[in-house]
Amino acid sequence: MTVSTAQPTPVLGVGLAVRPQHWEAVLACEAPAFWVEVHTENHMVEGGPRLEALVALQRKHPLSLHGVGLSLAGQAPIDNTHLLRIKRLVDRLNPALVSEHMAWCRRAGVVLPDLLPIAHTTTECARIADRIDYVQNTLGRAIALENPTHYLTDAGHKMPEDVFFNTIQRQCGNTWIVDLTNVLISAHNTLKSGEAVDPTWVFKLPSHTVSEIHLAGVSVDSEAITCANAPIWIDSHSASPNEDVQRFYEAYLAYTGPKPTLIEWDNDVPSFDVLWAQRTRFQSIFEVAKKGSQRA
């Protein structure tokens, strides 16, 4: 396989996934180390006000393009039309970060509204690494991939999550977005099952392969029950990260050192002031970790 050349990880702090209603406030923001993320698919256009607004954002702040539609872990062939539209946007903007999901969302011509995990097997490692390599070579750069959330058990896993991820990374040279909220949700939803997720697996990813961290809010579905007879947790992105997520983040930064960190809030989106308060909360944690890494 050809290994795509990795881009250097930008020196960034805590950023926000921003929505159009916040763009005016974001453009007025002067905070250092602040960056913004948008979903790639919302901006794969040839022109018009949406693209113009994104170009203005990118001139003001480092930009992350976070895709949700490639279905990298899926069985369906990579959609080359979709991939080339991503490439045109990446080439135009040269964003600080480009990412997708270690998940699938297409099957038998149907696009699903979820980003679903894949069985952890040696066969899947090789197959998915080939797909990642193809995407990276098309884009001309390494990309970061985000760990999915586990809602079901009996997926057919044959290896631990860290072994699966590390095997893929060694083959194709990608980096990882570690979504700590996804990790905690997966551990809760699979507890007492034969495929229980041990949340400490993320500490077994070499820190240099982690290029970004994601944090988000959790909601509870009291109508769906886990193997541990508890309500299922949902990665809803509809609230601020809770105290469990904050503690996990503090512990993980102690392991990785400061990494660009994103707060996601995609549903029941509040005012920019509320988002900025959360950014301030986690930026202070980031700064503590940064000072600690400088002393080490």
Give the DSSP E fraction (strand runs of 2 or more residues).
15-25%
**What top-tier CATH class fits best?**
Alpha Beta
The CATH topology is TIM Barrel
One letter per element, helices H and strands E, the order comes to EHEHEHEEEHEHEHEEEHEH
Structural class: alpha/beta
Offer a concise description of the structure.
With 296 residues, this protein is an alpha/beta fold. It has helices spanning 23-28, 49-60, 80-93, 122-139, 161-172, 180-190, 243-256, 272-295; strands at 14-17, 36-39, 63-66, 97-101, 104-107, 110-116, 144-146, 175-179, 210-216, 219-225, 231-234, 261-264.
SSE blueprint and pairings:
Elements: E1 14-17, H1 23-28, E2 36-39, H2 49-60, E3 63-66, H3 80-93, E4 97-101, E5 104-107, E6 110-116, H4 122-139, E7 144-146, H5 161-172, E8 175-179, H6 180-190, E9 210-216, E10 219-225, E11 231-234, H7 243-256, E12 261-264, H8 272-295
Parallel strand pairs: 1-2, 1-12, 2-3, 3-4, 4-7, 7-8, 8-9, 9-12
Antiparallel strand pairs: 5-6, 10-11
